[in-house]
Design goal:
By secondary structure, this protein is an alpha+beta fold. The protein is built from 18 helices and 11 strands. It is flat and about 100 Å long.
Length: 509
Amino acid sequence: MLLPYVEPKFSRDDQGLFNTLVPFDHWTRRSDKHIDFAELRKPLEALFSEDGRPAIEPVLFLKITLIMYHDNLSDGQVFARTKTDLAYRRFLGLGRDDYLPDVSSLSKFRARLGVDGHKDLFHGLLSQARTHGLVKDRLRLKDATHTLADIAIPAGLQLVAQARNKLLNAASPFDEVRVAGERVHIETIRASTDGGGNEARLIGRVEHLRDILAWVDKLTIPHDASENTTWKALRKAADVARKVLNGHDAPDEPGKIRSTVDPDARRGKHGEFYDGYMTDVMIDADSELFTSINVLPANGNESFDTITLLEQELEAHGNDIENISIDGAGYDGPVIRKLESEDGPHVKVFVPQKETTNGGKFTSDEFDLSEDGSHATCPAGEQSQYKQRDDGNHTTSFRFHTDTCHSCPLRNACIGGKQKFGRSVRKNDFQPEYDMVRERAQTDEYTDVKRDHPKVERRLGELINRHGGRRARYRGTARVFAQQLMGAMTANIKRMIRLLDADGPLALC
């Protein structure tokens, strides 16, 4: 049960102590001045039952979390810090004789919030910034970076063994005798393959994992499967085992599971290869406040996530964004068309153009496509003879006859001297979108927009370097998403109080 919110009140002695020792330009005092924490509490009230024992005040946990991300502390460290730091005790509404709850209650608070609760807090603060007139809808800036997963990457043998052990542990409540037999079989496999090299050891363990998964999949589904947490844990372990086996069967396919400890983490590349997640953000170019954030597996589609970020902000605030600036990842025809469509976010997209060069030869742009799309015409006026469709890449290839190309007076400007076949040209379904953004990149408006773009890189760097966003504190996409939401919320509070105190003393935050 959640009691009505009451603003903290201090005794005269405590108030005198805080006034003497806590600077009046400290970020916590300025936060209390400009941030309405009682308003942020409102969307959380529905998460508590209407009866039972009174709950610990959620604003207390929210403020503890903000301190944790502000100073990049762990759960234990933030509780130790708030026991002795007068500025933080004042911020939390704790006098000298008041006690903090147990440190374990903070993780329970996070679990109660879930992803939706963290999003409500993030966008609730952003709504306050909009009320203050800080957030404009003129331009959004988008960028992404990598977040390292909280895992150690096991070798192939270890990964299979981890998946097997997790599956057996989860299956034990449903068939204890069978699980005991499988554990004996593990020792048999170990003894029979120890002298056969890593390949033989891996094959034996993979086949054993297949056998275990086969009988687990045949277990009788309990009548309360939708609420049975033990059954859900088994199905989750089975899914992880299945992903491990798929990665073994198709080693060259992307998106392989990297660890059974955090099965959501993937391998991606950001400069160098890494294992973890991609943190994708969008900021308001005028206030430099984070307006939406998302977390994807490391191999996620950064370009398409632009739509997700815009829709997240639109759903929360119902605003109408005019323009968006994206780096080279946004040079994606389907995404550009969706972003500019009246059926989509309907924003004006600014992305760097990609030069279409062909080693000094004629480019595909110089080949005219017929109105019915049946053939292409080259600069010499010849028509293509062959056509091939590639739906995956949204392209159609047109090839010219070998004899036509070899006898063409423009051959040297079109194909190499040693090329045996005729010229092939690929036309993209989204060529109008690519032409549009290339033409837009030549305008003064584009220059002005791209002059603002480094702001998002600086803000993303602050989130990553000052608020612990480079490394995942938790495991699983949902938990890492909640982490980055709170880090961005903390960064937004710092930015808001700087903007709102622009005419007063500014403390270093």
